[in-house]
Amino acid sequence: TAELDERRSAALRAIDHVYQQLDERAAAALAEVRAAQTTPGSDAEVDARAEAAELHALRVAVLRKRFDLLQAQPGGDAKATLAVARELAIPLPDDDELLGRYEALLADAGQREAARTVARDRVAAAERRGAPVPERAERLRALAQRHGELHEAGDAAAVLEQALALALEDLAGLRVLAR
């Protein structure tokens, strides 16, 4: 496994290098967009915006790859993993899978208030994207659990009631409420 760890480390170094280059190119593209905005609708503006959008997508893809590699590394750097997750959550506020991983990392690191905030963000994201009722109820139950971990019984009960109002037949929600 030493060889695998070395490969992962090399991949992380390569990703960091690419990310730095993308940062520099993104800054240059943004400057071009600002300069081109003097003539709105011009070909230069359209090209600059397209390049900026492409660089943004590449940046997100590189960050996601780095996040995956950091999480796959046994005994990896928890602070670096959290930092990358935090950075990814900004451009991807509706990515439930990412936010779920971020929430779990925060909880594992003992950052319960931050985990509650991410759980709240997941509820809002599920509502924005029109997630199915069972998923929204599950997000609400997870938020109630985070409130409970912080000894916020009133908030936990209120959120559980919201979950039950969504899905009256929700046995998991009823079990949690009965505790």
Quick synopsis:
The protein contains eight helices and no strands. It has 179 residues and is mainly alpha-helical.
How would you characterize the overall build of this protein?
The chain is mainly α. It is 82% helix and 0% strand. The protein contains eight helices and no strands.
Which features characterize this protein?
mainly alpha, 8 helices, 179 residues
Beta-strand percent range: under 5%
Note the overall shape.
flat
Query: Number of DSSP strands?
Result: 0
Helix proportion range: over 70%
The mean pLDDT is: 82
How does the helix and strand content classify structurally?
Answer: mainly alpha
Topology at a glance:
Layout: H1 2-36, H2 43-72, H3 78-89, H4 96-108, H5 112-128, H6 133-149, H7 153-166, H8 171-178
